[in-house]
Amino acid sequence: MLHKLSPSQKVLAYACLVLLAILILFPIYYMLTVSLKTNRDIYRVPSLLLPNPTLMNYVELLGRRGFAVNMRNSLIVAGSATVISVFISCLAAYSLVRLRYRGRTWIGRLILFSYLTPASLLFIPLAVIINRLQMGNTLHGLIFTYLTFAAPLSTWLLMGFFRNVPVDLEEQAMVDGATRLQALFRILLPVAAPGLVAVSVFTFTGAWNELLLALIFTTSPEIRTVPVALQYLITGDVFRWGLIMAGAVVAAVPVMTLYYLSQRFVVQGLAAGAVKT
Amino acid sequence: MLMARPATLQSPVRASRISLSKRTSLLGYALVAPVVICLLILVVYPFIFGVTISFTNREIGTEGQFVGLANFIYLSKVPSFQKAIVNTIVLVGTVQTMKLVFGLGIALLLNQAIRARQFWRGLILLPWAMPAFVAYLTWKLLYLPQGGAFNIIAVGLGFGNIDFLSRELAMPSVILATFWRGFPFWVISFLAALQSVPQEQYEAAAIDGANAWQRFRHITIPGILPVVLVVVLLSTIWTTNSFENVWLITQGGPSDATMTFPVLAYFGLQTLRIGEAAAVSVAMLPVFVMMAFIGVKLLERNQE
């Protein structure tokens, strides 16, 4: 429908887009300005502007509040969950797309069903199981539970990407004497690299953003992930919005950078399979 | 390529067809096993376990006994539970309708010959690229009675102080924030779908004298329907189960005005009566199972 717009349609279209831009950017603008304000400026003279910008909140957050520890925890948890999930999902997706055996359809359905099973249905039994396995209040307990949403999602998306790679390439390699696994790692994975990037970004951000399970499984402050640390800042007695927004900015920047660097692949991945938020 | 195939079959390593296919099956199972084992431990077992404990009076530290439907009967009399049903329906219904209408509208807009389309697409993605907890914390800040941006604007416009988190306004406030964070996913998916509709169909229709509405009705809608269905379904599952939007903005309050199922289940876990808490989640099971079955069907069909 790429026909030329009439001048009046054009005015209307751009007016809508500008309104949309304001709706999208205003919250982000306000988050940034508040993170650069003193507590006094936030409450005493509420303003949409930024009269006395200061980095005080960031200094306090990363220094005295030990937010760096939370960032480190989140990095460890999200990073490990991503590596493990993407690795085992590559194997599973390859198996389901390229090999023929009995029960394959049902395994595919199990994965899809797991992908659609919401965490809010699983978190209570998971809490009991994790405690029984003595993994409560540990980072590896979190890494382990994050596979519940990471593995089905990665497998499902990778299946879509693998299916789009012509099978001839791998067959050629196998004719030349490569084993199936060599064909997977040396031929298929490099060709499907954009898909791997998209899946890794989704998995990483999914784990980085997760609040509910992290809230339940972590009890001591030194193993809190970023979302949990921030939620404790808002449920505490004294609201320090400058500090909370500084934390929000610091938490959002790595993930959003990652998104923007891989935007092309991410949008492709979205089209390929739709993603859990 | 076709010429080459028989050569592998006849190679001395793979002596016969039967052992080759057996070998392939074994490798197939071996490769899929790690994910399957993970899901059996982390999804299937907890799922069954969760349903089982919802029929017991289990508390943290005890095994509990089978109590039949007692938890569900008890819950049906709890005001918070009734509120959670109504609120979840209102929240999901409103948010999804808004996303459908605005998402489709914005996608159609971005699919026109406008300047800097890439820029606008990048901009649209912003709320969604943001972590959910960051987005909802920011909206909580916007709604604050003291120092919140919306109140600064309301006072500036002469409306005086408005309590966006009061009993009356808390639900609309949560709805708006949930919409803001979730609509980009719809726009991007709809855009991808719009671009997959063959251009020739529009040209043919234009030649036949179809007007814009007729082209939209008979070409665009059928063309994007499969994607729309998947997006609506997946997003409905996630929105029904989202916890952060309510928890970070209102914690279900004031006085249950924004209580939803996931938040209620979380509170249930805090009381340590996990039989009851599990029953809250299990109460949504029929709806969820129905959506999941439709979802499996739709996604399998779309991937073919």
Commentary on this structure:
The complex is a heterodimer of chains A (277) and B (304). With 277 residues, chain A is mainly α. Chain A has two domains: 54 residues, no CATH class; 211 residues, MetI-like (MetI-like fold, Orthogonal Bundle). Helix content of chain A is 76%, strand content 0%. Chain A is built from 14 helices and no strands. The radius of gyration of chain A is 23 Å and the shape is globular. The model of chain A has no long low-confidence stretch (mean pLDDT 87). Chain B is mainly α and 304 residues long. Chain B has a domain of 200 residues: Orthogonal Bundle (MetI-like fold), CATH 1.10.3720. Chain B has 14 helices and no strands. The N terminus of chain B is likely disordered.
Outline of the structure:
The complex is a heterodimer of chains A (277) and B (304). By secondary structure, chain A is mainly alpha-helical.
Detail the topology: elements first, then pairings.
The complex is a heterodimer of chains A (277) and B (304).
Chain A: H1 7-35, H2 39-43, H3 56-62, H4 67-98, H5 104-116, H6 119-132, H7 139-163, H8 168-175, H9 180-191, H10 193-209, H11 212-217, H12 226-235, H13 241-261, H14 263-273
Chain B: H1 5-10, H2 17-53, H3 70-76, H4 79-110, H5 117-129, H6 132-143, H7 149-156, H8 170-196, H9 199-207, H10 212-240, H11 244-249, H12 261-270, H13 274-283, H14 285-303
Helix pairs in contact in B: 4-8, 4-10, 5-8, 6-8, 8-10, 10-14, 12-13
